[in-house]
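Task card 7
Instruction: Convert sequence to C-alpha cells.
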Amino acid sequence: MNIVRNEKLINRNAKIGRWVSFISLIILAGGMYISFRQPENVGLSLSALLLGFVLSQMGIYYTNRWGRSPRPDQELDAALKGFGKRYTLYHYTSPVAHLLVGPVGIWVLIPKPQRGRITYEKNRWRKRGGGILSTYLALFAQEGLGRPTLEISSEINALAKFLRKKLPDQELPPIQAALVFTHPQVEINAENAPAPTLSAKKLKEFLRKVAKETPLPETEIDKINQALQS
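Output:
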C-alpha cells in the first residue's frame, strides 16, 4: 500500500499543540494564583481561568490529532497494513484528513478514539459506558463524539467539489465514508447508521469484501490518484 502523508503539517501542528498546552498551564496557574493572593481581582482571575481552559481544549484538539502516539493516521496505517500497491492512503493532503483510493473505490475514513459502547438509534449517535476514566477523558482530555452524520456529509461534499474541479470532464465514482473507532475497547451497535461504522480491526476485512463486490477499474484509480497528487 502506498502512503502519502503531509509530514510538514503534522510536525507543525504537533508543535502548536505542545506550545498551546504549555501556555494554557501557565495562564491557569496565574489565574489560580490571583484567586488566592488577590481575591479582590475576581474578574481578572476568572478571565485567566476561562482563557486557560479554552487554550487547554485547543491544545488537546491538536495533541490528539498530531501529537500523540500512535496518531490517527498511524492507526489507520496499521489497520490497513497488507493492502497491495493498487491502494493509496492519503493523510492530510486533500480536502479530507484521511482518504483511501484503490480497487475498493474512494473512501473517506473518519477515525474516532472513543471507547465504550457506540450506538446509532432513532437517527442519533450515542456513546455509553467506558467507565470513570472514559467519562473523565470525554470531559477534559478527549473530543466528544460530535455529529458524525454532518461530518460525513461535509467531508464527502468537500472531496467531491475538489475532484470535480480537478476532473471536470470525468464522471466521478461514488465517494463513500466510514467511521472507524480505533480504541481496542469499543463495542459498536450501529447497523442502521447512514455510513459503515466499525472498529479499526474490522476495517480491512470490510473493505476487501467491498472491493470484491464492486471493484473500481485501474484506469479510474489512476485518474483519481493523478488528480490528488497534481
